[in-house]
Amino acid sequence: MTASPPLVVSENLTKFFPLPKGRKVHAVDGVDLTIHEREIVGLVGESGSGKTTFGKTLIGLLAKTSGTVTYRGKTLPQQYEAADFRRQAKVMQMIFQDPYSSLNPRMTVGEIVGEGLKLHSDLSASDLRDRVASWLSRVGLEPDYMSRYPHEFSGGQRQRIGIARALILEPEFVVCDEPISALDVSVQAQVVNLLEELKASMGLTLLFIAHDLSMVRYISDRMAVMYLGAMAEIGPAQDVFFEPKHPYTQILIASNPEPDPNLERSRKSTTITGEIPSPVDIGPGCRFAARCPHVMEQCRVQTPLLLPLAGQPDRQVACHLFT
Ligand code: SF4
User: For residue 125, how far is its CA from the centre of ligand 1 (angstroms)?
Assistant: First the structure.
């Protein structure tokens, strides 16, 4: 278990979206997660599990419905005002999933990358240009590119622009929301290597949201598995990947193709069946009960809590098989 102090802590963090007639979407439902300084936590789960909503609520891009987030021990506001965004932008940032839609097509690369610094510093125009040029080169792009527009770049280059935009303020904590899923496989490793290099040189702490479990295992210190708005399992990334405990994690990992052909041959693979259920008006019981091969009567009425595994305090699982 990592010895570094907690940087970001969510306690019972909840984000519901209201629907007509008092119904609500339980996008994030009582999530506890502690992220330590200089740690990479990989957050995985199917589409619709609430990963992106959790990341956005954690850094204040979405208002919390209830629960708390603390940063270096200080409780963050329930709903951010403009001044809170200004303050938090210097320590928390987000890298978005789609490098095509997340960059304003009418702005030059220099304006996109320098926008945050312009708002949050009193640098002169020439110092601002120098900082933008230096960040473009740090993410592997030519400083001359600053006068060009986003449509002139490939997906991988656009994601590098998005990374420079997020990191130019030198934040401590970054939520990376599926930063590689829109990229060609050949470019994914380059972007992951860049993030790892920047993490090491800047001492960053990352929440790395992804579909690709093999990539998450590779980059993360710990892995957190979300299902239908709640945490199913958390633990050291290698342990969760090679020895998953929660039935959902087991199926998710078994259905994930392994890029190493030797490992793929020796692996017992399967396919996850059925759809993730609707997150509207979730009742009591285990959220995975409808798809779980080990479901018991108790699972349908009693919600399992996320608890440490016996003898493995660094692993937590929300399943009645372990209580
Ligand atoms: Fe399956 Fe029951 Fe565990 Fe849920 S609590 S994952 S239904 S065994």
Answer: 58
